[in-house]
Specification:
Layout lengths: L2 H10 L4 E2 H8 L5 H6 L5 E7 L5 E7 L4 H5 L2 E5 L6 E6 L1 H4 L6 E2 L14 H13 L3 E5 L21 H6 L10 H5 L6 E4 L6 H7 L3 H9 L8 E7 L2 E7 L3
Parallel strand pairs: 5-9, 6-7, 7-8
Antiparallel strand pairs: 1-3, 2-3, 4-5, 9-10
């Protein structure tokens, strides 16, 4: 495919397009298999379906950050439909793997006296060591006990320490350090009622702050997700229940 057609595709497919519309725009017949196999350095070709179940394609630039390079997937967030995210796996991934494993991390309550550190560390290691396993953060990742909430005196770490770790104490790492080895495997995060304590009282979500450092997509509400791989669409709905 020549460079002129590639340039046209990048411009036209900045929004989702059918192959018929693409063919008309570039003045050359384009097929679904050809678009599915299309690889453009520095870009991700997203393949989804519209409301009529017709294949649609969108081309978006890929980030150049270190974490983006480590991901075997790229994401796009719909600016009009706030809680919608597309997660597109790279061809290099789905040509070698025959499945995607999802292990959701939820209700960890890091910092609470009864937090199961052994289980949490084992889950992180399992995700890290399993090439086709990924995760999402489904809320209540920290205890976040505040003065006006229950559980304040059941904490062994302050809310700040729960996120960033206890200063000069390697035995008490925070959420950011614990999740750092798997940050390229976290599709998104959303808060639970414990993170929302800070959102209500101080208009600041500690999980959102952690996600900014980890470079993880954060949503303040339930998430509708389209997982795109093997030319299929898997729909996921996530909410902290």
């Amino acid at each position: 495919m020549n460079s002129n057609i590639i340039e046209k595709l990048i411009v036209f497919c900045s929004s989702p397009r059918t192959v018929e519309a693409i063919s008309t725009y570039i003045g050359s017949r384009m097929t679904v298999p050809a678009m599915s196999e299309l690889q453009i350095p520095g870009f991700t070709v997203f393949q989804n379906r519209d409301s009529k179940q017709c294949p649609i394609f969108m081309i978006k630039p890929r980030e150049t950050t270190d974490i983006a390079k480590a991901r075997m997937w790229n994401f796009w967030r719909d600016p009009k439909v706030t809680p919608l995210i597309w997660v597109q796996f790279d061809p290099a991934y789905y040509k070698k793997q025959d499945r995607v494993l999802l292990k959701v991390l939820s209700d960890v309550h890091l910092g609470h006296i009864e937090h199961n550190s052994k289980k949490f560390l084992a889950d992180i290691k399992l995700i890290q060591d399993t090439p086709n396993m990924f995760t999402t953060l489904n809320g209540d990742m920290i205890e976040n006990g505040l003065k006006d909430t229950h559980g304040t005196f059941d904490q062994i770490l302050t809310p700040e320490e729960q996120v960033w770790g206890r200063e000069n104490d390697p035995s008490q790492p925070g959420l950011v350090k614990l999740l750092w080895p798997i940050r390229h495997k976290i599709w998104w995060a959303l808060p639970g009622n414990h993170e929302q304590r800070s959102s209500r009282s101080g208009n600041m979500c500690p999980l959102k702050a952690a996600c900014k450092v980890l470079d993880v997509p954060y949503f303040k509400e339930p998430v509708f997700a389209d997982l795109l791989t093997w030319n299929r669409v898997f729909n996921i709905y996530a909410q902290h229940g």
